[in-house]
Design goal:
Helix 3 links the parallel strand 3 and strand 4. The protein is globular and about 30 Å long. The protein starts with 5 loop residues before the first strand and ends with a strand. Helix 2 runs parallel beside helix 3. The chain is built from three helices and four strands. By secondary structure, it is of the alpha/beta class. It has a four-stranded parallel β-sheet, sandwiched between helices.
Length: 85
């Protein structure tokens, strides 16, 4: 039985995504990576996700719009918003 939690990291900056991926793996989580909100929505529909960590400022779909869309289907999925601004 796999008890490893899956965390979806969403950021348009490749270096930040790589850093999150490394950090999550070292902490024992299974990272999923998305470069924008639309990609993140697709992943959430395809896989079980235990937590989303998303950048606020992204092109195509920003973090707030991603959160609103996630909440339409899943009101209880934990969501952490981050920004470098």
């Amino acid at each position: 039985m796999d008890t490893q939690k899956t965390i979806l990291a969403v950021d348009d900056e490749p270096n930040m995504l790589r850093l999150l991926e490394i950090s999550l793996k070292q902490a024992g989580y299974k990272p999923l990576l998305a470069r924008d909100g639309k990609e993140a929505l697709q992943l959430v529909k395809q896989q079980t996700v235990d937590l989303i960590v998303s950048d606020l400022h992204m092109p195509i779909m920003n973090g707030l719009d991603l959160l609103k869309n996630i909440r339409l289907d899943n009101e209880s999925l934990p969501f952490i918003m981050v920004t470098a601004q």
